[in-house]
Amino acid sequence: MLRLIYLKSCSALLVLAVTLSSCSSDEPTPSPLLYFPPNGSSTWEQTNPASLGWNTTKIAELDAFMTSTNTRALLVLKDGKMVIEKYAGKQLVNINQDFTATSNWYWASAGKTLTAALAGIAVAQGELNLDEKTSTYLGTGWTSLTTAQENKITVRHQLTMTTGLDDGVANRDCTLPECLTYKAEPGTRWAYHNAPYTLLDGVLTNATGKTLNNFLNEVMKSSTGMDGQYIQTGDNNVYYSTPRSMARLGLLLLSKGKWAQTQVIPEAYATLMTTSSQTMNPAYGYLTWLNGKASYIPPAPLQISIPGYITPDAPADMYAAMGKNGQLINVVPSQNLVVIRMGDDPDTSLVPYLFQNDLWIKLNEIINP
User: Fold this and answer.
1) Average pLDDT of the chain?
2) In whole angstroms, what is the distance from residue 273 CA to residue 261 CA?
3) Average pLDDT in the 160-183 region?
4) What are the two backbone dihedrals, phi and then psi, of residue 347, each rounded to the nearest 5 degrees?
5) H-type helices in the chain, by residue range?
6) Where are the domains of the chain?
7) 25, 69, 97, 242: which has the fewest Cβ within 10 Å?
8) For the chain, percent helix, then strand, then coil, each to nearest 5?
9) Which CATH superfamily is domain 3-13+27-127+209-367 in?
10) Percentage of the chain with pLDDT > 90?
11) Using CA atoms, how far apart are residues 49 and 82, in angstroms rounded to an integer?
């Protein structure tokens, strides 16, 4: 059974070694009155949903929906404050113990957005160049391509899923050179391909001279109070943390990279992450999914462009980190909302973006009665 807790003008862009889209005056911006929970504390200010005019009579239906979809955690933040916080089911490792606010779960591909943020910080520190060839950081021969072909792949291509490497191989997570073969010229084809993303770990490590976890601790966790760590899981380097840690990243993104008075992710880069990174799949930024675009290519081994929003029942300005089995960070700047979901399989898709829309249908009944 689920337990519900009711918890009481464009800025100037920083100069980065990246190409940035200019802000427009109608872009939604977060409130300057965002609340940030203190570091090293379980304190998190709360707001009763009834005080916001939310329809609390529909929360029981949300309970039933979340139970039926194997959810472990569901958090909804408004202006940074906790409005809804739910936990259910059992822990990931201690399978006989209840899942709680202090339990850890995997982020799966939702961790891609965290890695993208780290890349932006490394750029700001002068340690990484997004337009530098990947082989500068990984050495030549990291693929099976010719040297000339390999040298055309840049870090930016890895961050935007446009390396041109063949995602039709037997193991799309395999990062060995024999698994990384030529399909198209970099920048001309979008494909949801894990292996080139996973190799960003090595890019960041070699660029900064620090392990991925040490770099994260230094540039983000110390400022935001996030917990968790990257752990090698199969072919992938997966982030594990508590749900509230995921919520802290969502709040950081909502505030355009600023935590209280500290600019953690450069604001210009935070904007870049949530801007269409190419034209093939306008619903994809920098390892971050974007709602409100004219079409999208789903996160699946298909090359099908589908007209319409990827999450039609969510606000158009919502952007998301999405991972296998429904690991979700949804950020809505126009409403100052952050929605977090962790849990097991809600359906059988690679990344359950359809489930994300089902969740918003339920949330809209509460938030927008």
Assistant:
1) 91
2) 21
3) 96
4) -155, -165
5) 59-68, 111-124, 135-138, 147-150, 155-160, 194-198, 200-208, 212-216, 222-224, 243-254, 267-273, 353-367
6) 3-13+27-127+209-367
7) 25
8) 30, 20, 50
9) DD-peptidase/beta-lactamase superfamily (3.40.710.10)
10) 84
11) 9
